[in-house]
Specification:
7 strands, 264 residues, 5-stranded mixed sheet, alpha+beta, two-stranded antiparallel sheet
Length: 264
C-alpha cells in the first residue's frame, strides 16, 4: 500500500526539491496554526522525540494544550487547505481505517504505540467519536509515527500484521489498554504475541511470521517519514479535514471540529 503524499493531483511527478518545498510550506503553516491555536493551560501534550531526516525544516514540538473552551479552527490559507485536503486516502478496504470512504469528515491520526498520550486518546476520546463513524459522518485513518525507539517500530509492524488478518483495531485497543494500566509494558516479541491473543487474531503462526515481513516494516517507516516531512514530530497528532489538533486534547475539541466540518 503506497503511502506517498501527492503534492499535486493535476501535475505529474515532481522533483525532490519541489516536494521538499511543499513539505516546508506545510510544516511552517502547521507550526503557525498550532502556535495560534495553543493557549495557556495544563500541558496534555505530545510524546516528542524529534527524529527528522536531513533537509526537513525544524518545527514546533511540545506545545501547551488549549484550555477546554478553546477549539481547533480550520486554516483559511488556500494552499495549506489544498494540501490538508489531500491527506485522506479514502481507500476502500483499508484495514487501518474505519468508516465510510465517502464520509464528509476524515480524521487522520498519527500515533506511537509507546506514547501514553496516544493511549489516553484511544481510551477516552476515540469511543466518544464512534457514533459519528456509525452514522457515516466520520472516517478515521490511522498512520504510524514511530519515534519512541525500536519497540515503537516493531509494535507498529505487529499492528500491521494484525491488520493482515482483519484485527488491526482490536490489536490497537489491546496495546493502548495495556499502556494505560502498565507503566512498563512488554513490547517484546512475547508481549506482542500476548497482545495478538487478546486481540483475537486467529492464526498466531501467521502473525508471528508476519512480524518479520520487511514490507510491513517499510510501510511503518514510510508513514513515519511522511509525517516528519509534514513537520509532525510528536504524537498524537490529528488533522480533521482542515483543522489541526496537536496532542490528547479534550474530547470536546474533537467533537467541535467534527461537527463544524460535518455542517459545512
Amino acid at each position: 500500500m503506497s503511502t506517498q503524499l501527492e503534492t499535486s493531483r493535476s501535475e505529474g511527478s515532481t522533483s525532490a526539491r519541489i516536494a521538499w518545498l511543499v513539505a516546508w510550506v506545510l510544516s511552517l503553516a502547521l507550526a503557525f496554526i498550532l502556535g495560534h491555536q495553543m493557549g495557556s493551560g495544563q500541558q496534555m501534550g505530545t510524546a516528542n522525540e524529534p527524529q527528522s531526516g536531513a533537509g526537513v525544516p525544524p518545527t514546533a514540538t511540545a506545545q501547551p494544550a488549549p484550555a477546554p473552551e478553546q477549539q481547533a479552527e480550520p486554516t483559511q490559507d488556500p494552499e495549506v487547505m489544498r494540501l490538508l485536503q489531500q491527506l485522506p486516502r479514502r481507500q476502500a478496504n483499508d484495514p487501518l481505517a474505519v468508516g465510510s470512504p465517502d464520509a464528509k469528515v476524515v480524521l487522520t491520526e498519527w500515533s506511537d504505540y509507546r506514547c501514553p498520550y496516544c493511549a489516553r486518546w484511544a481510551r477516552e476520546t476515540l469511543p466518544a467519536l464512534q457514533h459519528y463513524v456509525d452514522d457515516g459522518t466520520l472516517r478515521i485513518e490511522y498512520r504510524d509515527l514511530a519515534v519512541l525507539g525500536e519497540e515503537s517500530v516493531t509494535t507498529a509492524v505487529a499492528a500491521r500484521a494484525a491488520a493482515q488478518q482483519g484485527r488491526f483495531w482490536e490489536f490497537y485497543a489491546a496495546v493502548f489498554d495495556d499502556l494505560t494500566q502498565n507503566p512498563q509494558p512488554d513490547h517484546s516479541r512475547t508481549g506482542l504475541l500476548e497482545f495478538a491473543r487478546t486481540a483475537g487474531i486467529p492464526d498466531l503462526a501467521r502473525f508471528e511470521a508476519d512480524l518479520d515481513d520487511p514490507a510491513l516494516r517499510e510501510a511503518v517507516e514510510r508513514d513515519s517519514q511522511e509525517a516528519q516531512q509534514l513537520g509532525i514530530t510528536g504524537t498524537p497528532f490529528f488533522v480533521i479535514n482542515t483543522s489541526v489538533i496537536n496532542g490528547a486534547q479534550p474530547t470536546a475539541n474533537f467533537i467541535q471540529a467534527i461537527e463544524t466540518h460535518a455542517n459545512e
